[in-house]
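Sequence in, structure out. Go.
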Amino acid sequence: MSHLKVAKITKTYERKVWIESDIFGSTYVMMRHEDGKSESFCFCQFNYNYMYTSNAHIHDTATAMAISLGATEPVEYRNREIELDA
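Output:
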């Protein structure tokens, strides 16, 4: 039988959650821990395809996901920067 070690949580960091969208219609739910050293990461991505999705549905679904991760209303929306090779 193994013995479990006990840990005490001494500090928790807030999470920043926001949504980014790009010029192709894709939407990204982004997160970052506010500890001063963590980098932003994409929690999930919703892709746009005119045959199967709508902008309104993607917007509503991404907003619901962001709120479920701790974002508060109104959820912050940002335009995603795209990098173009010169």
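Check: The beta strands are 15-21, 27-33, 41-46, 77-79. The radius of gyration is 17 Å.
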